[in-house]
Fold Tyrosinase.
Amino acid sequence: MRSFLFLAVLAASATASILKRETATNLPASAFTPTKVLPFSDAQAGTDLVGLNTTQSTSPFGGAQGAAVSAAEAACSANPNVRIEWRSYSTSQRLAFISAIKCLMAKPPSGNFPPATSRYEDFVRLHQMWMPNIHGNPKFLVWHRYFLWTWEMTLRDECGFNQPFPWWDETLDAGNFANSDMFTNTNYFGHLPGPDPNGNPYCIVSGAFAGLTCHIGPGTSTTTPHCLSRMVDETLTAQCNSGFVNLCNSRTDYASMESCSEGGPHAYGHNGIGAVMSDVSASPSDPIFWMHHSFIDHNFRIWENADPARLTTINGDDHFGNPLTLNTVVTVADIFPDVTIGQIMNTMSGVQIGDHTFCYRYSY
C-alpha cells in the first residue's frame, strides 16, 4: 500500500513539473462576466435579426485565379485532414492530444503577447486583446475558425502533434456534460463540478490540468492570477442540443446563422461549463475551449455543406460597422499569416497558408 501511495505521489510530482503551478486564488462566480445568450424562443422569433446587414458579398475569385483555386480544392479533396469526434478518438490519440496541450503550456511565451507566461497563454492573451472585434458580430465564426486552425498547426509545429484533430459533438452530451469521459477520466480535462454551497466555482484538482494557474483574465485583467475553475449548470449545457443547432442552421444567410450560433449553442456551452470558460475574453485559459469551438466550427461547416453558394458568400458588419466581404482580412497577430475570409470560408479550399495547407473536414 505504501509503495502504491509513493508511486502516486511520484506521478503527481511529474505532472506538476510539466505545468507552471503556484498557489492561485479561486475567484468567485461574480468575477466572471457570462457570455451573452440568445434564448431559443428569441431565436425562433428572430429578435436577434433586427438591424442585421444581410447584403451578400460574393466570391472574388475568377479567371486564372479561379482555376488555381479549383486545383487547390481538388488536391485537398483527394487527401483532407479529418477531424475525429471524441467518441471515435482512440485512447492513444487522446493522450497525444492532451500531451501536446501540456507541451504548449510548458513552452516559454513568444514575448509578443505580454504578460503571457507560456506559449499557450499567447493564444489566451491574443483572444483577450482582440475583444470585442471578434465577438458580438458576424466576424465571430470566421475568426474563430482561423484561430482554432492556427492553434492546431502550432501544436503540430511546436509540440510534434501528429494525430488527427478531435472535435466534440456536444449534442450527444447536451444537459449531461459532466458525465462525458473528457471530464470523468482523470487522464483528460479534469472534473466538471457544480457550484459550491455559496454558488461559486471549484478549482480543478483532477485531470491533466489540475492546479493550473490562469494569468490572463478575468475580463481585461492581466494582473489577477487565478486557478482554472469550473461550475457546471446542466440547464445551460442542455441548450447545446440538436434542435437549437438545427434552428440556427435553418437560417439561409451567413450573418443570420452566425447570430444564432454565437448567442445560442456557443454562449450556452461557455456559460454551462462556467467560471473561466464563461469569461468570454479569456475563456481559452480553459483547455476545453478548443473542444467547444470545434463543435461550433463543425456546425458552421454543416451549414455550409447545405448549399455550395455558402462557401463563396458572406454578409454582415464587423464590430466597427464595416461590411464583411470575402476580401476582409482575418488576423492572428503574426502567429500565422493574415488571410482573407475568402481563403478560409471553405475548409476544403486547399489554400496554402505559410507552410501549411488549409484543408480539413469533419468525420460527420
Q: What stands out?
A: Residues 139-159 form the longest helix (21 residues). DSSP finds twelve helices and 13 strands in the chain. The CA atoms of residues 276 and 283 lie 6 Å apart. The chain has one domain: 18-58+74-362.
